[in-house]
């Protein structure tokens, strides 16, 4: 499915934005340089390594008079339904363009005197490499995916004859304007990869803000991957609890292949309330609830933890059977009371002083994480280490 729209009042401006910003990614500018690392425009770039929500991962600046081509292509792969891909602007940010994913489909946002947003099929967050090509055909700018039509914007205006001058700034994985200027707000974190870029047939490099670009895995599967170097932290207050009902967390995966802390929970100013740790050497799971410790073999593929008012229950599921145990809060603060004002860490053990340092980090792939029956998006964490992949694991 594609979308066809015509805005006569902004036609030339929109064409300039799309042709020179969307199609211009990868050109090298005279203002780039310094001592920062340079990377080829055709490099494989892991968008998930960006340590800042909105700051670009790589960027470039070019004179508009140097642009000779208005056709570009690249390959893109992700399981992530939402996040930023790239940005471009002219007039030092007065006119800008943003390409992102929202609900798994491409979203283009443009400002050239008038704010415009266009979104539509196909869905791209299926974990497959998709070839994306942008071209100008007469009065239309086309975004094609895998050789078929995606988004189509129709344009017709006398502003097409405007003289092109000034600088074009381009950025991958970040923007150079305030996010409040966008029509459609979204979470910029993108667990995705770009490769084989052919930008305007130019070969000049981009400037990278990171010292090294992290590689992308050759093959991926859905899930959240923890390489043993970091974790994700949520405020427990982010999860709604109605009355005195239970809180339940569910984890899926091949636990026999994991090592380290799957999750830990701690109320502010108190000792660690609960943790689950996998040992790949002994193939055991250790559950620690304050002073009590329980151990079981990690032969299961699904783990359910239920926090009740005065107790917690752990249930392991193995194909056609299940087993469980319960722990009472005793004289300690009730589990739900502690849950309402604390932190939930996925992939690591929370520090004793309510810090974000952590320890005993997880190595392995959690295929699915749910809290209160809803999938947990690690991109929404209060803190997430850059090494953690929120939506993909190496296959």
Automatic annotation (TrEMBL):
Gene3D superfamilies named in the record: 2.60.120.200
Originating species: Maylandia zebra
Pfam family, one: Laminin_G_1
Keywords tagged on the record: Disulfide bond, Glycoprotein, Lipid-binding, Repeat, Secreted, Signal, Steroid-binding
Laminin G domain residues: 51-216
Function field: Functions as an androgen transport protein, but may also be involved in receptor mediated processes. Each dimer binds one molecule of steroid. Specific for 5-alpha-dihydrotestosterone, testosterone, and 17-beta-estradiol. Regulates the plasma metabolic clearance rate of steroid hormones by controlling their plasma concentration.
Quaternary context: Homodimer.
Compartments, as annotated in UniProt: Secreted
UniProt protein name: Sex hormone-binding globulin
Signal peptide: 1-26
Gene Ontology CC terms: extracellular region
GO molecular function: steroid binding
Predominant localisation class: secreted
Secreted keyword on record: yes
InterPro entries: ConA-like_dom_sf, GAS-SHBG-PROS, Laminin_G
């Amino acid at each position: 499915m594609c979308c066809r729209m015509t805005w006569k009042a902004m036609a030339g401006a929109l064409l300039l934005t799309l042709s020179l910003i969307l199609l211009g990614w990868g050109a090298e500018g005279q203002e780039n340089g310094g001592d920062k690392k340079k990377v080829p425009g055709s490099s494989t770039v892991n968008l998930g390594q960006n340590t800042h929500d909105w700051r670009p991962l790589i960027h470039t600046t070019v004179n508009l008079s140097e642009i000779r081509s208005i056709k570009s292509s690249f390959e893109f792969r992700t399981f992530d339904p939402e996040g930023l891909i790239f940005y471009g602007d002219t007039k030092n940010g007065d006119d800008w363009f943003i390409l992102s994913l929202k609900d798994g489909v491409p979203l283009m946002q443009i400002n050239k005197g008038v704010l415009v947003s266009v979104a539509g099929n196909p869905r791209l967050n299926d974990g497959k490499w998709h070839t994306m090509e942008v071209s100008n055909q007469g009065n239309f700018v086309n975004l094609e995916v895998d050789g078929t039509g995606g988004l189509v914007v129709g344009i017709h205006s006398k502003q097409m004859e405007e003289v092109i001058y000034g600088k074009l700034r381009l950025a991958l994985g970040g923007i150079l304007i305030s996010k409040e200027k966008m029509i459609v707000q979204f979470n910029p974190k993108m667990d995705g990869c770009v490769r084989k870029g052919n930008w305007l047939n130019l070969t000049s490099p981009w400037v990278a803000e990171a010292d090294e670009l992290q590689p992308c895995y050759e093959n991926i599967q859905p899930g959240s991957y923890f390489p043993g170097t970091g974790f994700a932290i949520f405020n427990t207050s982010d999860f709604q609890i109605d009355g005195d009902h239970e809180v339940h967390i569910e984890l899926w995966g091949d636990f026999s292949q994991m090592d380290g802390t799957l999750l830990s929970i701690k109320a502010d100013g108190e000792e660690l309330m609960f943790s689950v740790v996998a040992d790949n050497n002994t193939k055991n799971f250790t559950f620690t609830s304050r002073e009590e410790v329980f151990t079981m073999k990690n032969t299961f593929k699904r783990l359910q933890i239920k926090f009740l008012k005065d107790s917690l229950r752990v249930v392991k599921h193995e194909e056609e059977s299940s087993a469980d145990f319960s722990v009472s809060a005793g004289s300690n603060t009730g589990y739900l009371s502690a849950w309402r004002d604390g932190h939930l860490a996925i992939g690591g053990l929370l520090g004793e002083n309510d810090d974000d340092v952590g320890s005993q980090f997880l190595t392995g792939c959690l295929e699915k994480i749910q809290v209160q029956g809803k999938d947990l998006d690690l991109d929404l964490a209060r803190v997430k280490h850059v090494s953690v992949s929120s939506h993909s694991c190496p296959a």
